[in-house]
Amino acid sequence: MKIDSWLLEILACPKCGGPLTPDEAADELVCAGECRYAYPVRDDIPVLLVDEARAPAT
Ligand SMILES: [Zn+2]
Question: Which own/partner contact pairs does 7-12 have at CB distance under 8 Å and 24+ positions apart?
C-alpha cells in the first residue's frame, strides 16, 4: 500500500470528519477521530465509503 502523505493530509473520514491513519499491514485507512472506522485501500486507492468501512471491534 502506498498513499502519498499530501493525500493523507487532505483526506478525512466521511463518517465523522476525523483524520485518517494508514494501517500498512491491513491495507486500511483507520479513522483517528471518534468513529474509528477502517476504510479499505484497493489498488492504492482509498475507498472512503461508510458502506465499505469496517466498524471497530467493540
Ligand atoms: Zn471517523
Answer: 7/46, 11/46, 11/48
Q: What is the pLDDT of residue 57?
A: 77
Find the 55 Cα to ligand 1 centroid distance in Å.
10
12 touches 19 (CB < 8 A)? yes
Beta partners for residue 39, in sequence order: 29
- The whole-number pLDDT of residue 20 equals 96
Report how far ligand 1's centroid is from the alpha carbon of 48 (Å): 10
- Helix and strand element counts for the chain (H, E): 1, 4
Query: What is the reported pTM?
Result: 0.89
